[in-house]
Amino acid sequence: MSDDEHGPGGTDRQPGAEQGAEGGSGLTIAIVPDACCAMGRCAATEPDLFDQDPDTGTVVLLDATPAPALHASARLCAELCPCGAITVTES
User: Fold this and answer.
1) H helix count then E strand count, the chain
2) CB–CB of 12/89 below 8 Å?
3) pTM for the full predicted model
4) Exposed, middle or buried by CB within 10 Å (0-12, 13-18, 19+), for 76?
5) What are phi and psi of 66, to 5 degrees?
6) In Å, what is the CA distance from 16 to each residue of 11, 22, 50, 57, 74?
7) Fewest CB within 10 angstroms: 2, 23, 45, 83, which?
8) Residues 23-33: pLDDT tens digits?
9) CB atoms inside a 10 Å sphere around CB 90
């Protein structure tokens, strides 16, 4: 796999993830709640971007188009997700 394309739970240069909207920041986060295994790594790593549903424990996306200061954290959360529920798309 090249540096420009990654599977689930990583960065993706092409839009098309299930939830999330393109924004002006150049980076968009998308989540697939049904794929979430409720480990909470994303919420623990970057609470400005992710939370957990109090009933199910699954991921809740707080900001689909974060400021550039949070881009590295968004990428890290996608990499840390053990079930591939988070995708980061960069334009």
Assistant:
1) 2, 5
2) yes
3) 0.73
4) middle
5) -70, 160
6) 12, 10, 20, 25, 17
7) 2
8) 444 999 999 99
9) 15
